Automatic annotation (TrEMBL):
<dbReference type="InterPro" id="IPR026350">
    <property type="entry name" value="GxxExxY"/>
</dbReference>
<protein>
    <recommendedName>
        <fullName>GxxExxY protein</fullName>
    </recommendedName>
</protein>
<dbReference type="Pfam" id="PF13366">
    <property type="entry name" value="PDDEXK_3"/>
</dbReference>
Amino acid sequence: MNDIVFKELSYRINGICFKVHRDIGRFGREIQYADKLEDLFKGNEINFKREFEIKDLQNNKKTGNRPDFIIEDRILLDVKAKKFITKEDYYQMQRYLKSANIRLGMIVNFRNTYLKPKRVLNSKAKDNDIKRNKL
């Protein structure tokens, strides 16, 4: 059971995050990191949606949940620029994953000296339902 969810895509995202961290440093603002990520995603031909409001699958209503990036409709990316990641950040990501029915979320805190992207899994997501979700 050592399968990595969306291995290649998540490695590409990690590489881009490391480049952003190297270029901007650790004392930028969240918007600066997100803008640079957007530029690099476009340059690397990675499909994404930025700050897109997620619809709930059960009642097809908007939830108010807006992750920073939805990448290839498979990975949610939440950009942070603060001293440390809290439980609330994990709970927020779990809400995003549940309402979007996506298996993998990543929380990246650019304030750290050494970048350590955190992977959050949604074990209840169904692969076949992801394609039906018109985020």
